[in-house]
Amino acid sequence: MAKRPSSFLVTLLRRGAPALATATSELSDEVGDPTPMRALRRIQKMSGPVDTTYRDNLLLRAARYVALVPLVYRLFAVPGAFGVYVSTHGMIGIGPVGLVALGSVSLSLYGIRWMLRTAPFRPQHAVRLLALDLVFTLLAPLAIGALVPASVFTEAMAVPGKHLLGEVALLALALGMPAAVGLALASFPVRMLASLLGTGKAAPGDAMATFPSILGVLFTATGALVLVGLGTRLALAYGIRNGRIAERARQHRMLHDSVLQTLEAIALANKGDPAVRLAEVQRLARAQSMELRRTIENEASERSEAGSRPLGEKLASLAAEMARDGLRAQLVIAELDDDTLSEVRQIAIRDAVRESLRNTLKHAGTDKVVVRVEEQDGGIAVITRDHGAGFSPDARPAGFGISESITARLNEVGGTARVESSPGNGTRVTLWVPF
C-alpha cells in the first residue's frame, strides 16, 4: 500500500522552519492561480501534500533566519528582567542572577553571529548550538534556586524565565512544535526542583503560574510558523507561475526574432532565377539552423560572453549582422562609461535594437538607418531613425515585434520604448533604460 504524502502544514508544525525546504515540491498550479477563490480553499491548496524527502538547499539556508526572532527577543528581554531585579533588590543575589543573564546574552549573541556569518550552513553545528542552549535553559533555574537567597527567589526566577520563553519559541521554529511542547512540559518539574532548592518547597502552584506565558509563546510560534510557511509557499507558487510566463514570452520573442524573421526573408527572396533563389533560401536556412543550434546548446555562455562586451561593441556587431542582410546602419555613439549600464540592460537594448532594425529592413522600403546612442534623462537612449515609407500608428496597431520584442523586453529591465512614425516621413524608435 502506497504511503500517503504528508501535508505541508503538518510537516511544517512537526519539523519547524526547516520544512520550508520542501515548499516547492508537489506545488499545485492552483496555488498560484490569480483567479479569485475562497480563502479557505486557497489555504487548503497551500497546505497540500509535499515530498518530505525533497530538500531545496537555498530555502533550507534561508529558513535559519526565522530563528533570529526569539534570539533577538532574549537579547532584550533577559537584560530587561535583570534590570528590574537589580532596581528592586539591589545587590542581593546579584552574582548568580547576573551570571545567568550574562550567559543568556552570550548565547543569544553567539547564535545571532553564527546565523549571520558568511560561512556555509552546517546542520550539525546548529544541532550542537541548540543542545548547548537547551542545557543552559534547564540548568539556569536550578542555579538560581541553589545560589540566591529564598527572599528574592521568585523575582530572580524572572531572568531564566525570559530565557525559557525565548528557548520555547526557538525550538518551535527550529525543530518544530513537538520539541517546543516537550521543553514546555519539562520546564514545570525543573521549576519545582529549583523552588525546592531555593525555598525548601516544591511550590507546584508557582510552577503552573508560568503556564499562560508559555502557552502564549507556543500559540505565537505556531501562528508565525503557519504564516511564514503558507506565505512562502504562496510566494513561490506566484514566482514559478510568473517565471513560466516570462520564459514563454522570451521563447516567443526568440522565435519571432529568429525563425519567423528567416521565414519572412525567404518569402521575400529574389523571385528571378530559380537557381539564385534556391541558393539564397539555402543560405538563410543554413544560417538560421546554426543560430538555433547555438542558442539551444550554448545560450547561457553566449549571453555571458556578449554581456562582457561594452554596449558600443554589441551595437557594432549588430550593425555588421544587419549589413549582411542588406541594411546599412550608421552608428553614432556618444562617449559612455563601459560600466554605466548593467549587462542585463545592455542585452535588452541590443535585442530591442535588432528587432527595430529588422522592422526597418522589412517594412520601411529603405536600406539605410541611423542608430544614435546618448545619455538621456538619467539613462541611456538608443534612437533608430529611417527615412522610409513610415506608417500611421493609429491605422496600424503595434504587432508582436513592437509590443513584445521591443516594448515588453525593455519594460522587464525598467526601460521604455517609443515609436513615432507617419506615412512618407519614416520612423523613429527611441529606446531608453535607466543607469
Automatic annotation (TrEMBL):
The keyword Nucleotidyltransferase does not apply. Pfam families: HATPase_c. The chain crosses the membrane at residues 65-86, 93-114, 134-156, 168-194, 214-240. Keywords: ATP-binding, Kinase, Membrane, Nucleotide-binding, Transferase, Transmembrane, Transmembrane helix, Two-component regulatory system. GO terms for biological process: phosphorelay signal transduction system. Residues 346-434 form the Histidine kinase/HSP90-like ATPase domain. One of its GO terms (molecular function) is kinase activity. PANTHER family: NITRATE/NITRITE SENSOR PROTEIN NARX-RELATED, OXYGEN SENSOR HISTIDINE KINASE NREB. This is ATP-binding protein. It comes from Amycolatopsis coloradensis.
